[in-house]
Sequence to fold (528 residues):
Amino acid sequence: MTRRKLPVGGVQTFSELRRDYEGYVDKTMHVYTLATQYKTVFLSRPRRFGKSLLCSTFASLFRGEREWFEGLAIAKTDWDWEKKHPVIHIDLGPCDITKDDVVGLLDVLNVQLDSACRRYGIVVEKYDSISARFIRVIEELSEKIGPPVVIIDEYDHPLLDTIDRPVINEELRNTLRGFYTVLKQQSGNIRFVFITGITKFAQISMFSGMNQPKDITMLPEYATICGITQEELETCFAPEIDLFAPKYGGREQYLERLRYEYNGYYFTEKRTSVYNTFGILNHFDRGAFESYWSKSGTPSYMLKYLHMREVDAVEIENARMEAVSFADYKDNTISLFPLLYQAGYLTISDYDEKTGLYTLNYPNTEIRRSLAIFLSERYAKVKRGRDKSFSFEFSNALLAGDVDLFFELLQSHLAGVDYSLASQITEYYVEFAVSNVINMLGHGLVCRNEFHTSHGRMDSVIWAGDYIYILEFKVDKLVKRAVRQIQEKDYGLMFAADVRRGKKLIKVGVVFSRRKRNIVKWQIVPAE
Fold:
């Protein structure tokens, strides 16, 4: 079988993707609807989710590049390909604010306005005011060619890049506020505006001078505008699935593992999930299960945020927020949960219509593992580099069903955890600390906390090869209380089918001591 050429590595230009690659997932009906129904649109999604490709798709559409849309859904619509518009494409991703001034931002804006001028044969010299130049470019294009389309990609990058420098952050915000005000002033000369970013801007004063865009970020009808649905995966990547499925035990087992590793992103209350585009494409390049999205880099603003603020580790899993909190970004401040959600480390796992509250959790194994590694390096005194052989011992103990060795190694690890970074040492914090070390190990190991069943809530469940572990934690209490709870709640019942298929179930009561700040006792629940 001839391997297809997939857009691995993040191809962001629509024409290049259509010309040189295979495996395009057709989102053009979304593009058509937005282009025909709205004047100004905003979309927030995590990095490497296809926002830049979407921007390029809009650019090709309005330029009338019909050849790249042949065979796609939009080709069957009434789109007028003869009516072409100039496009001003502003990408603030390359904006690097190394000094405490706005020169870097102004340079990027001027370079991209220069590009638009050259492309359409107009001349607009640099002004003292970037906003004044932006106005003249729009007016010149409107008069000589037609109303332009304005695309602004990664609008918030300069602000996130300087989140730890409030003085320059405010100066950048003021400059951008003036620049974006032009979009309102020139609304009559503009055909369409599309803005993307990571953070939602509903409350940012930077946008107070422009008409409020149509925010499609959490609209159910646009839940899948970025990312890949299960149906799209099985349809568009059938050749790759057929190629790699035998390696992983057949089609069903392979699809299940793909879902577990790379699916699970929900962006609205509608229960439709998507795969991260970057991760799944890189997987299909050679069929290896690796943390591709995570390895592409931790956003610098995440590091800066955690450096600026003390973060209570206990808060992260099963966080709950109101809808308005997703836009909780006022000037240069942002709360932890919206940041983790918008950065792609958390996703919507549940929605309560009665209370209007969203529950956030890790989307998949890759992200659970990557955040565990990220937090462990911050919350533990022992760094990963020293622990490679240790991690293999840890993994092997779990994979072999050696409970005593596992807990002895766990005691050693927990001795290096900085507990001052938690507001209080509770059973949930112990769950968090344990799941963190399990999830960062890899080797197919997964740990989930607060695992709900019809009989109650299990503290932690670990999947390790042929073994499933159920852990019940108690802090400063007798181990027999943990054992009795496991027995009375019959926590193992939900895994009966797994046991029939050959899995081995191990249930363990565990005691943590606040004084010793470590696990002091564990007991395996006798088999029934």
User: Anything to note?
Assistant: The domain at 384-528 is CATH 3.40.1350.10 (Trna Endonuclease; Chain: A, domain 1).
